[in-house]
Write a structure and sequence with these properties.
With about 55 residues, the protein is mostly helical. The protein contains three helices and no strands. The longest helix is centred in the middle third of the chain and has 22 residues. Keywords: Membrane, Transmembrane, Transmembrane helix.
Length: about 55
């Protein structure tokens, strides 16, 4: 839980206090959100069950 709060605060600080183009901020936000979702899935043990899913034949 602390990690989520720290990541959220850091992302908020970057978005508010570091001047950069809106497109770059959007990409940065997407990358951080995807990384946090993957990290959460891994921490909850759901990544292992997702690896066994076969798509196609």
């Amino acid at each position: 839980m602390i990690t989520l709060i720290v990541v959220g605060v850091l992302l908020w600080l970057v978005n508010n206090y570091i001047p950069m183009d809106g497109k770059i901020k959007r990409i940065l936000n997407i990358v951080v959100v995807v990384a946090v979702v993957v990290w959460l899935l891994n921490m909850l043990g759901l990544m292992d069950s997702l690896r066994t899913i076969r798509i196609g034949r």
